[in-house]
Amino acid sequence: MSTLLPPRLAATSGHTALAALAALRTGASPQHRSRLATGFSPLDQVLGGGVALGDLVLVGGKPGQGKTVAALQWARSMAAAGNSVVFACYEHDEVALLTRLLAAELGEAAERAGCRDQLRLDPLRAGLWGVASGTRRLEEVLGSDALLVEAEERLRSYGEHLVLVRASGSRTGVEDLARLVDEHGDRQTVLFVD
């Protein structure tokens, strides 16, 4: 789930459907809201150019269907575009999220290099999973191949815009998420809650 948050959320009052219709008829339609592209063309087309400021997007599905990976990809794309992004995850820690980001960057680096050699790529991916599980050291893995060096460089290009948070049901409530956005965000901060 993600939402674009204005700097301070103000309570808004509802309007009846007739009042909204009357406002539209008199030309008092709501102003155009800024949109942030997710980086995935079909989704951005469906969303009218991306996620609009103030929108709440809920992604649902069975476990293991790729919701976290999809949301992390959108967060990565938005951060790479220079937007402030907070990614709070209740299931995975920062290391697991970071290695997933590096794996995504590895995939793109391999594609740019025209590398489809699974005998080369599989050990690189396995190395990243080893970092996530704590059986390998990051320095050892990242320095092992030029594609991983490129993946790290790409992550560094947007990393300061993407805040990864290990959330907890006992210590990360709505107020804590708002505080994180205030601390790390700006006028167009995207908050992902996974």
Would you give an account of this structure?
- It is built from 8 helices and 7 strands, in the order E-H-E-H-E-E-H-E-H-H-H-H-E-H-E.
- It is α/β, with parallel strands linked by helices.
- The chain has a single domain, classed as Rossmann fold (3-Layer(aba) Sandwich), CATH 3.40.50.
- Helix 3 crosses helix 4.
- It is elongated and about 65 Å long.
Pick out its properties:
194 residues, five-stranded mixed beta sheet, Rossmann fold, two-stranded antiparallel ribbon, alpha/beta
Q: How is this fold's topology laid out?
A:
Layout: E1 2-5, H1 17-25, E2 35-36, H2 41-46, E3 51-52, E4 56-57, H3 67-80, E5 85-89, H4 94-112, H5 118-133, H6 138-142, H7 146-158, E6 162-166, H8 174-184, E7 189-193
Shape: elongated
**Main β-sheet description:** 5 strands, mixed
Q: What is the chain-wise order of helices and strands?
A: EHEHEEHEHHHHEHE
CATH topology: Rossmann fold
What's the quick description here?
This protein has helices spanning 17-25, 41-46, 67-80, 94-112, 118-133, 138-142, 146-158, 174-184, and strands at 2-5, 35-36, 51-52, 56-57, 85-89, 162-166, 189-193. With 194 residues, it is an alpha/beta fold.
